[in-house]
Amino acid sequence: MDILLKSVTVIDNESPFHLKKADILIKKGMIAHIADPADTPEQDGVKVIEVQGAYVSAGWMDMQANFNDPGHEYKEDLESGSLAAAAGGFTEVALMPNTHPVVQTKNDILYLKRRSGSLVRLYPIAAVTKDAQGEELTEMIDLHQAGAVAFSDGSQPLWHTQVMLKALQYVQKFDGLLISRPEDQYLNMFGTMHEGVQSTLLGMKGMPTLAETVAIERDLSLLAYVMELTIGQPPRLHFSNLSAASSVALIRKAKAMGLPVSCDVAAHQLYFDETALADFDTHYKVNPPFRTAEDIQALKEGLLDDTIDVIVSAHQPQDEESKKCEFDQAAFGITGLQTFFPILASILGENLSLEHLLRKITVAPRALLKLQVPSIKVDAPANLTVFHPEQVWKLDHTTNFSKSKNNPLFGKELKGKVLAIFHEQQSWMGLSSYDRSR
Amino acid sequence: MEELRSKHLLGIQDLTREEIELIFNTADNFKEVINRPIKKVPSLRDITIANVFFENSTRTRLSFELAEKRLSADVVNFSSSGSSVKKGETLLDTVNNILAMKVDMVVMRHASPGAPHFLARNIQANVVNAGDGTHEHPTQALLDTFSIRSKFGGVEGKKVAIIGDILHSRVALSNIFALNKLGAEVMVCGPATLLPKHIKSLGVKVTLDLREALEWCEVANVLRIQLERQQVKYFPSLREYSLYYGINKQLLDSLNKPITIMHPGPINRGVELNSDVADSEHSIILEQVENGVAVRMAVLYLLASKVK
């Protein structure tokens, strides 16, 4: 059925309706008509969606999620993960390779591509090293040809300096994006939370900021080394999951020097700090760990001046047993897809505008992964997210689409809601059932 | 020019263009000799040569031995397996013991770059480098350039692509030196992980793209993937290497021009070269082997004139 989005505020820098209200008619998956609400004629046989205060933007893209399929489907699978992504506002998701087996062959890529739905399109990120062990390179050229959009060992850092160097050199052949999760595992050994006042109070082994900055400094040095006498395209290096003020400063400096680097931050890093762990609640156990209020402030400044290019969900589902245990035994991770937008909505203001933040989940990730950036114009395919920054809802058993619920915001009232997504002639709408407009 | 300046052949780097051409002109004569019914000349009748190989070799050792025998030299062979090396003897002691038996020249292969230079400084005999680690393999480069000269009538101005594992290849390095001295243009091609970082400083073009290299060149010298020389893995797999850096007939046919194919051997068939290329009319791989004997005869002959 054709759908009319009535009186939505458009966010798209390229559109003449940018920051204005418009009516958007979607016919057979295409944007058929955009007009001022006053100019739109009445139409029959059209489903009208009208929510006061709703916005529409290009469909969102999450550059980093884990769907645990194949291997740990009891935590998440491609279907449940895709539904959670849809409810979180994402029409496209890049999946980390840390499945069982690890995504490292043409077959693994084809499995994900074949099983991807069209409402939420899934893009595989392939492993840099075999079994993400950091020791032997995977067949990256072949994986790239098969459809891997980037290379990363996901939750595993690329610890082997020589292998990291080789990987940087190797991806030059096809202008690939190498994603490094900066962590020195030796410095973080046995650590469970940020090394600071809170870890001292709790008597827990800390994960120092140093473990992150040492790794970033190492990788930047390697990149500079390769760049000194580069052949073909310089390698593109992306740091994932920044958590510390000093990391932001390092990347800012590297960008100023002209190094081809980019980075992302997980949404929850902008929201929680180390004090959240005071009750030993394992739902706050993530890697990198939640750090301090000053770090959060620096991360926001990094978003503002575009030192940080992308915001990711870092969706990492864990089953109940992995979290319902002693803190040091518990698994790391948070299911980030459905709480992504409420967190984003919470940091709006303080110079961070909605349109600025949305670029970090629409334009920026797709540019890095060399994917088409959707636009809101007539005759373009409808790849759209409709959302409301003020609406309040609750993440609970009735609204959670993930198979897991390891999220500290589970059961809490949240402000900021995704109303609908449209992509490849499909749509998801979460309008009525749990909607309590204020 | 009538003779070489040095009594050793340690590397191409030490030779002038004139010396290389002297070796070529001498090799022309010996190539004629080894195609006679009686393939032997008495030139080195009173010379004793030791082939000292501390690394495995089949064709280089055979080629040297045949060259020596066709020059009527007396030959002794020594290879590191089952030798005194395993008993802890130093390189210098091992060689001095051989020399004490009145040997005039030493042909040595060794895994350490610079080992023949070390030897040349410390012994009386003439030293011929038959490959020192990842440094030089001068007679291979001489026979390669000699083969290009035989095929095209000259080396000057020829476009030669050296493809594969440049990082671990003494053949690549010696060839680059020789081709530069003889006025050829050189491009190297391989995965970035198998190219030395400062390779451009040798005055060569560099590409990561095999097709680009092949479209540019007239001669492709395809190197062996030296798995035995890689202490850590430099590329993911032989499969991926052959997919993106292996040469097959289909690829060559798509270029619309003939390319002369060379390979120093032994070939990893199906990895860097497919059989339909290695055995094709454009391959001069077996001519290289034949020329190897003539070129080594020339080198030994010219150096022997310096034996005191």
How many strands appear in the DSSP assignment of chain A? 18
| Rg result of chain A | 21 Å
Number of helices of chain B: 11
Class inferred from helices and paired strands of chain A: alpha/beta
Going by helix content, strand content and strand pairing, the class of chain B is alpha/beta
Low-confidence stretches of chain B: none
Layout: helices, strands, pairs:
The complex is a heterodimer of chains A (438) and B (308).
Chain A: E1 2-11, E2 21-27, E3 30-35, E4 46-49, E5 55-58, E6 60-65, H1 78-88, E7 90-95, H2 106-115, E8 121-126, H3 140-146, E9 150-152, H4 161-170, E10 177-180, E11 193-194, H5 197-202, E12 206-207, H6 209-228, E13 236-239, H7 245-256, E14 261-266, H8 293-304, E15 310-312, H9 320-323, H10 340-346, H11 354-359, H12 363-369, E16 384-394, E17 413-423, E18 426-429
Chain B: H1 17-34, E1 48-53, H2 59-70, E2 74-79, H3 91-99, E3 105-110, H4 115-122, E4 126-132, H5 138-152, E5 159-163, H6 170-181, E6 185-189, E7 205-207, H7 210-216, E8 219-222, H8 238-245, H9 249-253, E9 260-262, H10 275-278, H11 285-304
Parallel strand pairs in B: 1-2, 1-3, 3-4, 5-6, 5-8, 6-7, 8-9
Helix pairs in contact in B: 1-11, 2-11, 5-6, 5-11
Describe the structure.
Chain A is an alpha/beta fold. Chain A folds into two domains: 2-56 and 377-437, Urease, subunit C, domain 1 (Roll); 60-369, TIM Barrel (Alpha-Beta Barrel), CATH 3.20.20.140. Helices cover 26% and strands 23% of the residues of chain A. Chain A has twelve helices and 18 strands. In chain A, the strands form three sheets. In chain A, strands 1, 2, 3, 4, 5, 16, 17 and 18 form an eight-stranded mixed β-sheet that branches. Chain A has an eight-stranded parallel β-sheet with strand order 6-7-8-9-10-13-14-15, sandwiched between helices. Chain A has a two-stranded parallel ribbon with strand order 11-12. In chain A, helix 4 (161-170) crosses helix 6 (209-228), helix 6 (209-228) runs parallel beside helix 7 and helix 7 runs parallel beside helix 8 (293-304). By secondary structure, chain B is α/β, with parallel strands linked by helices. Chain B has two domains: 12-137 and 289-304, Rossmann fold; 138-284, Rossmann fold. Chain B has eleven helices and nine strands. Chain B has helices spanning 17-34, 59-70, 91-99, 115-122, 138-152, 170-181, 210-216, 238-245, 249-253, 275-278, 285-304; strands at 48-53, 74-79, 105-110, 126-132, 159-163, 185-189, 205-207, 219-222, 260-262. Chain B has a five-stranded parallel β-sheet with strand order 7-6-5-8-9, with helices on both faces. A four-stranded parallel β-sheet of chain B has the order 2-1-3-4, with helices on both faces. The model of chain B has no long low-confidence stretch (mean pLDDT 92). The chains are: A alpha/beta (438), B alpha/beta (308). Chains A and B meet through helix 3, helix 4 and helix 6 of A and helix 8 of B.
